[in-house]
Amino acid sequence: MRSSITQSQATTLLHNKFVVVLGDSVQRGIYKDLVLLLQTDQFLSWPQLKSKGEFSFENDYLVEGGQLDRMNNGTEYKEVRQYQADHHLVRFYFLTRIFSRYMKSILEDLKGGLKPDVIIISSCVWDISRYGSGSLNQYKENLHVFFREIRDIVPRDCLIVWNLAMPLGSRIKGGFLVPEVSHLAPSLRNDVIEANFYSCVTAEAYNMDILDLHYHFRRSLQHRMPDGIHWDSLAHRRISALLLQHIANAWGVTLQDVPSIQRQVKVSQSQRGLKRTNKSPERPRSRPSRQPQNSEPVHRVQPFPPHPPLIQGFPPMCPPIRWLIPQHQIHFPPMYIRFSTGGDFGFQADDRCMRRRRRANRSHPYHQYLP
């Protein structure tokens, strides 16, 4: 799984495609990063990530709600945005519940209007926190209703990607956490894990594609903002890379690696006698993890020996090994990441959690290998 994506890869993959993004403020950040990526390789700024309901963002426009209506943090808040270019169309709907009267109107828009090629959906935190004590059970029922309804409306070749909610912090604060439900903050991170499990099982039962963002970012918590909910621009670019790679795999398209593209550019420019003048976009630094003073560095992942201990009375499956091995002699597999004192600004490339169902009727109008 690639950890970066370029503008040329995104524009080629989504050429003449209609992408719909539905969800909360984190999904709005995904929409904004995708819109920015279709135009430039730059990253989102903090004011761009923080703002909501603005009239225009990077050549898109506000269709409904937001500053066109009364700004609020209630469950009736609406925001519909759309970015339209010559060969790209991306639309965003803000959701506070996975299925409601407002969702019915959205499905009617999709049914009567232009048919989407990709739908990216996520709805969890608002569902399980703002609708009473039985909100989790209602969330489970609404998932079945929504998946059943959307399958009957969108075309069979439409790719529907269900994003699992990202990890929450132990102390959270946000617009959705009004004083009436502030007592749920300490346990909300655990409720999200339970809701993610159920939504994952339900989405797989309805033959949806699943992207487990909670798994991918479980060891990249240094990219989470101080409010415990939102994420920085590096994390959103990583999400865009995961989504576009998932879409490419579903369509049977192979995206060329970024280093090979850069090497081809250098070779072609050297052959022409040209000097490269464009610079790579400045990479913003994430918030480093804090360590207590006068203490040893805390490792986020504890090392484990590569094999379990032998049980007496059972024949060994492999030649016996020593259980206690000096730490400097242990060779950990690539999946383990140990963070330094100052924090790690990279991401782990791991796609074992991704569930893909490549149906026979899925197609893509371009060559298998995209430049």
CATH superfamily: SGNH hydrolase
Task: Supply the helix-strand structural class.
Answer: alpha/beta
Strand tally is 9
| Count of DSSP-assigned helices | 9
> How is the biggest beta sheet arranged?
7 strands, mixed
Q: So what's the oligomer here?
A: single chain
> What shape does the CA trace take?
globular
At the third CATH level, what is the topology name?
Answer: Rossmann fold
**CATH C-level:** Alpha Beta
| Adjacency order of strands in the biggest sheet | 2-3-4-1-5-6-7
The domain tally reads 1
Low-confidence parts: 267-278, 295-345, 348-358, 364-369
Share in β-strands = 5-15%
Tell me the series of helices and strands, N- to C-terminal.
HEHHEEEHEHEHEHHEHE
Mean pLDDT: 77
Terminus-to-terminus distance: 17 Å
Helix content: 25-40%
Radius of gyration: 23 Å
In CATH terms, what is the architecture?
A: 3-Layer(aba) Sandwich
Protein name: PC-esterase domain-containing protein 1A isoform X2
Region (Disordered): 264-311
Organism: Xyrichtys novacula (Pearly razorfish)
Family: Belongs to the PC-esterase family.
Structural features:
single chain, about 375 residues, Rossmann fold, 7-stranded mixed sheet, 9 helices
Topology:
Layout: H1 7-13, E1 17-23, H2 25-37, H3 46-50, E2 61-65, E3 79-84, E4 88-94, H4 101-112, E5 118-121, H5 135-153, E6 159-163, H6 185-205, E7 209-211, H7 213-216, H8 233-250, E8 254-255, H9 258-272, E9 369-370
